[in-house]
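Reading a protein record of the kind used here takes only a little practice. An example makes this concrete, so a full record is given next.
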Amino acid sequence: MGIKTRKDYLEALRQLRPNIYKFGELIEDVTTHPATKRTVESHALNYDAANDPELADIYSTTSGFTGEKILRWNSMMQSSEDLIANMKMKRQNYRRTGSCTGGVCVGWNAQNVMWAVTRDIDKEFGTDYQERLKKWILGAQEKGLAVAGALTDAKGDRSAKPHQQADPDTNLRVTEVRNDGIIIRGAKVMICGTAASQEIFLLPGSIYGEADQDYAVACVVPRDINGLTIVEATHPSDRREMEETAGDEVPDTGITQGWLLFDDVFVPNERVFMCKEFKYTAKVIQFFTANYRSCIGACVAGQGDVMIGASMLMARANGLSAKTFMGKFVDMSINNQVTYGLGAGACAIGFKHPSGSFFADPLTSHTNKVMVATLPYEVKRLTQDIGGGIVETGCMPSYKDLKNSEYGEMLQKCLKAGACSGEARFKAARLSEWLTLGGGVPGCMHGGGSPDGAKLVIRFTTPMEEYAGYAKKIMGIDEEISEPEKKKK
């Protein structure tokens, strides 16, 4: 089988039908177009790492099906060690790219979630979903696929359920079931890494009842499948990334989010793993969020590591010793380790599903999500604080101006502050800006779901009455202390 290389990966992307747009323009080649080449590079670095003897143990593993060496993001996660290996890879990714690599993350989680859910559906209904999924996973391992994962629907009116929406296309749904497959229509939005992926794993975006059974669909599609149009989102550093001198303005890496528009797309049966089994959407959401919200702690920790490094460079470029800010660096490191450690803890005390899939502890995972929506913003604030106004106020000139023959030399003189050149200080400042304001920012607040949603799970998974029982027992209280009745107004 062999581990696929950067060359294999890039060539596979070039073979896909162009169906991605940005600023109204069709992107013919995602590997070279300024709007997408950075997210492709972020993912290509994963293939490099899998072929690097020093990193191969993090980025590759052994297939539980064939015993052959495969890319880690195509593997089954069947132990706490496997989940923690997921975290180690994510943190290392951020250290190497400064940004998200959704095509080696979300689809990976999706296949493991559906391995468990298909087992349960098959057991109740006599379907063959898990066998279909196994064949697809074996193919993904052989081809070394990068697979995006798509849960989030456009949703429409948040106060109404999918079947109540004025326009049903705001949520992805099954419009027709045929002997050979299904027809799906609707939208999945803000999906990371689609431009850098070869396939997209689609999952139901919420927990559905019988009235919304058409929206209970899980399947995997080629990124260039007929009927799918992808529109790339924009972000604050777009203009700089589109410039000819972009390599000096921003890193060669980055992330984009796609809006996936499905117009009566046919999906053959062998790629369908749930079709209207609505009662199992709760398990999809439960299992997916448990693993995702534990492991995302590694993502923000990895980028936090880079922010510490960027802040050290800025201190020195400003003419100050990095030791001046040691207390702030320590605070940044503590915040990074809280989300990483809490995520690892969730993985360590997780549980094994009868299918073999391993899932993180839900209460601890969702607690980690709340921390992820909080602590990284303090790390970003400290990055801006240490870097100074040149990082945070948006007052820095462009690299083109820095190199202008008429006034560039004077600008570089103005930029010089410490022992390094004005250009080096410019690049360090731009990195800090990119990490805190630009395309390098991961979805801390709503990536992987909202913190309010996580708090709901925490509320329902915390056995508060049991805790009250502990308190009563400690003090020998035998009488019932019940909730007071709500007073009528």
